[in-house]
Amino acid sequence: MLEIRVIVRTVHILAAAAWIGGNILYLVAVIPALRSGGPAPGVGAQIAAHFRHLVNICVGVLLLTGAYLAFDRLTSTSLGWPYLLVLGLKIIVALAMFVLAIYIGQSNIRRLAKRTTRLSKAAPQLVLALGMVVFLLSALLTGLFEASIAPN
Ligand code: HEM
């Protein structure tokens, strides 16, 4: 049956896939294409602006749906400390990603002020790496949850 938790979970996973998948596309295809295709005035900035908009939506959706999923899981059965530990870790890494996304979003201002740092250059790769860690932790969470409801 199409329960609310199935819909919220689908939206959560879609937002995660759009953000991390978009990041991969950006780093693997868009940036190399813009670099090798010579100067295409304004195109890079436009792609960046559209992608930033998508990331903002994904972050908002992930926060809302993530809070719902966490509440739903924690109130549906008694989960052991491994689940709580992995969830806590996931939330910390996810929050670091959200902060980095805001930081990347302000990169135009920094570039104009000529204040590019090593962190601002590495931030997109860092978001991708942390995103992969979050996917792994999420898969672990699902495994732990299924183990907790499986009949002995
Ligand atoms: C504070 C933010 C977040 C919270 C509270 C949260 C919470 C959760 C919870 C409780 C689940 C269900 C786990 C289970 O089956 O027991 C889940 C699933 C999932 N989350 Fe998040 N999440 C957050 C952010 C993110 C982010 C940033 C990503 C990736 C970019 C992400 C990717 C996923 C994926 C892929 C699943 C499905 C895992 C699977 O079924 O294998 N989440 N999340």
What is the fold's blueprint, element by element?
Blueprint: H1 4-36, H2 43-76, H3 81-105, H4 107-112, H5 118-149
Helix pairs in contact: 1-2, 1-5, 2-3, 3-5
The structure holds protoporphyrin IX containing FE (HEM).
Residues 12-13, 16, 19-20, 62-63, 66-67, 69-70, 73, 91, 94, 97, 131, 134-135, 138-139, 141-142, 145 line the site of protoporphyrin IX containing FE (HEM).
Treating each run of at least 4 consecutive H or I residues as one helix, how many helices?
Answer: 5
pLDDT averaged residue by residue: 90
Number of domains: 1
Proportion of strand residues: under 5%
| Gap between N and C termini | 26 Å
Shape from CA axes?
Answer: elongated
Number of strands: 0
Backbone CA Rg: 18 Å
Ligand inventory reads:
protoporphyrin IX containing FE
Tell me about the biggest sheet?
Answer: none
Helix fraction by DSSP (H/I, runs of at least 4)? over 70%
- Secondary-structure element order, N to C: HHHHH
Unreliable parts = none
Structural category is mainly alpha
Protein architecture, described:
By secondary structure, the protein is mainly α. It has one domain (about 1-150). The protein is built from five helices and no strands. It has helices at about 5-35, 45-75, 80-105, 105-110, 120-150. Helix 1 (about 5-35) packs antiparallel against helix 2, helix 1 packs antiparallel against helix 5 (about 120-150) and helix 2 packs antiparallel against helix 3. It is elongated and about 60 Å long. The protein binds protoporphyrin IX containing FE. Protoporphyrin IX containing FE binds near residues 13, 63 and 145.
